[in-house]
Design brief:
It is a single chain. Helix content is 36%, strand content 17%. The chain is of the alpha+beta class. The protein is globular, with a radius of gyration of 18 Å.
Length: 149
């Protein structure tokens, strides 16, 4: 069985210049946990997840003692609003991006997702354009359909 047989073809993407606020709108509206980041031609340039957003927005530890940065009442909202205007390129994963081809085998994608602990893999065609996405849930659903039912 090939990736093309069970990948999601309705792919939500963002551009590196998209803001975190725009990204959050896509994630929340579509109830997804991450998206490929593409250039103007649809080529894969990175990945960004809800975890990347949380790590960026969460208060940072300060000092060598590891004390947690305390934000006074009302300041957290101001800090969040400022950070929401940051572009996705500042928080996206740019290196060692794994992707799969629509022609790759089901078993290989299963191994990739389990070995690297990724939740999603972009599906990229020969021209380097994102044409789909494959998630752990897609794999589980496919196993359920083929083996259990």
């Amino acid at each position: 069985m090939k990736v093309r047989d069970f990948m999601i073809t309705k792919v939500f993407t963002v551009k590196p210049s998209s803001t975190i606020k725009e990204l959050l709108d896509i994630l929340n509206s579509n109830r997804i946990g991450g998206v490929p980041v593409v250039d103007d031609k649809g080529h894969l340039v990175g990945m960004v997840s809800d975890g990347d957003v949380l790590r960026y927005l969460s208060p940072k530890r300060l000092g060598f003692a590891g004390l947690i940065y305390i934000i006074e009442d009302g300041e957290l909202e101001n800090v969040l609003h400022e950070k929401l205007d940051t572009s996705v390129k500042e928080i996206m994963t740019k290196r060692n991006i794994l992707s799969v081809s629509p022609e790759d085998e089901f078993e290989m994608t299963m191994r990739l997702l389990s070995i690297h602990n990724y939740k999603k893999l972009p599906v990229v065609n020969r021209a380097g354009r994102v044409i789909g996405v494959l998630s752990r849930g897609d794999i589980i659903n496919n196993i359920w359909k083929k083996v259990i039912t």
